[in-house]
């Protein structure tokens, strides 16, 4: 009689086909959304220093990246815009001829099957870099909300399938839903950045999007990192106001929040694996301290395992390319 146990977990780890057969969590290209940064002009392709592999592109170049995203079977793209000019009201955000509106029209004309999500916020368009209208040194919630709704409608009119408000103003999801419906855009979905934390991990993004605040920070709008019950309140509120999908952001430092939101709402949950999380892996890999592709894949797997249905990732395209072999 052997003293060894009858159940030997290592049996199913012997070969990759066995491991694949019993793998509980998978990451597929279709689970991933690729962020793209649109700038005015043509033939422009400007690398973002703090985010290797990420570029600011003019609409014609962005179209090429979007074509590849579609060909690779990614879930979709998420568009950000850097306007030609900024002002205190962020008017470039809701300009029909604005950079995102122009890029969306081109994408939907050339690649109608591509899922296009637009980030709805004013911070890339305001001269002060805050997410709305400043009154007495802080973002004024109720003056900002109508501008966000106007922005969302202009994105949807340009052809966006999904609008994603990332500003964290109170009541914006309800206002956006009402404005979309009023404009006859009841089929445009809302992916709300519902539990968005005031995070240090957004650093590199602010280079990519040129949206660093000129003074202060975003802590009067974005959530305190210590809070999870509040995240659930935010999520429930956005769902009650008409959000179709809810987001937790960042991802890795908030996997517990992702799990709770998934379990407690049953709604489609998106997690944003943000710029700083991406840049940390890239920087360590560049120094030869970790295996970049494996670390990226492990991070994406952990986010899916925590319950995210979809993941916004700067690594999406490289992940899908690697899968193709
Ligand atoms: C705001 C917005 C931000 C990100 C997405 N939308 C920045 C912020 O809130 O300061 C961050 C994304 C990232 O870090 O990858 N429009």
Structural category is alpha/beta
Shape: globular
What is the CATH class? Alpha Beta
Number of separate domains: 1
**Percentage of helical residues?**
25-40%
Q: Low-confidence parts lasting 5 or more residues at pLDDT below 50?
A: none
**C-alpha-based Rg, rounded:** 20 Å
Largest sheet: 8 strands, parallel, barrel
CATH architecture: Alpha-Beta Barrel
> How much β-strand is present in the residues?
15-25%
How many helices does DSSP assign? 11
Could you give the distance between the termini? 47 Å
Hetero groups in this structure are: ligand PBG
Strand order of the largest sheet: 1-4-5-8-9-10-11-12
CATH topology: the name is TIM Barrel
H/E element order: HEEEHEHEEEHEHEHHEHEHHEH
CATH superfamily grouping: Aldolase class I
The beta-strand count equals: 12
Mean pLDDT: 96
Q: What features would you describe in this structure?
A:
By secondary structure, the chain is an alpha/beta fold. The protein has a single domain (24-324), classed as Alpha-Beta Barrel (TIM Barrel). 39% of the residues lie in helices and 17% in strands. It has helices at residues 16-21, 59-71, 99-110, 141-158, 172-182, 203-209, 229-241, 255-265, 275-286, 292-305, 316-324, and strands at residues 32-38, 45-47, 55-57, 76-81, 116-120, 134-135, 138-139, 162-165, 189-196, 245-249, 269-273, 310-313. The protein has an eight-stranded parallel beta barrel with strand order 1-4-5-8-9-10-11-12, surrounded by eight helices. It has a two-stranded antiparallel sheet with strand order 6-7. The model has no long low-confidence stretch (mean pLDDT 96). Residues 119, 121, 123, 166, 202, 205, 218, 274-275 line the site of ligand PBG.
């Amino acid at each position: 009689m052997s003293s060894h146990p009858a159940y030997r977990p290592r049996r199913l780890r012997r070969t990759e086909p066995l491991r694949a057969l019993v793998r509980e969590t998978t990451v597929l290209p279709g689970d991933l959304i690729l962020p793209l940064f649109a700038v005015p002009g043509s033939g422009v392709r400007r690398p973002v220093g703090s985010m290797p592999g990420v570029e600011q592109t003019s609409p014609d170049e962005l179209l090429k990246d979007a074509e590849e995203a579609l060909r690779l079977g990614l879930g979709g793209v998420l568009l950000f815009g850097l306007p030609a000019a900024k002002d205190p009201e962020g008017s470039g955000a809701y300009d029909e001829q604005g950079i995102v509106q122009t890029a969306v029209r081109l994408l939907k004309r050339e690649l109608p099957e591509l899922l296009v999500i637009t980030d709805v916020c004013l911070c890339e368009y305001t001269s002060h870099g805050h997410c709305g209208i400043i009154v007495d040194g802080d973002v004024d919630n109720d003056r900002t909300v109508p501008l966000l709704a106007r922005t969302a409608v202009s994105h949807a009119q340009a052809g966006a399938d999904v609008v994603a408000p990332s500003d964290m103003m109170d009541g914006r999801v309800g206002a956006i839903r009402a404005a979309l419906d009023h404009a006859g855009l009841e089929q445009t979905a809302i992916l709300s950045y519902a539990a968005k934390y005031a995070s240090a991990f957004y650093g590199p993004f602010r280079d990519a999007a040129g949206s660093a605040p000129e003074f202060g920070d975003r802590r009067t709008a974005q959530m305190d990192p210590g809070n999870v019950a509040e995240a659930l309140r935010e999520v429930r509120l956005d769902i009650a106001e008409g959000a179709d999908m809810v987001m937790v952001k960042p991802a890795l430092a908030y996997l517990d929040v992702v799990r709770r939101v998934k379990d407690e709402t049953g709604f489609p949950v998106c997690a944003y694996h943000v710029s700083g999380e991406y840049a940390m892996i890239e920087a360590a890999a560049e120094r030869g301290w970790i295996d970049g592709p494996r670390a990226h894949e492990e991070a994406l797997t952990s986010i899916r395992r925590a319950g995210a249905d979809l993941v916004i990732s700067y690594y999406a395209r490289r992940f899908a390319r690697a899968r193709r072999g």
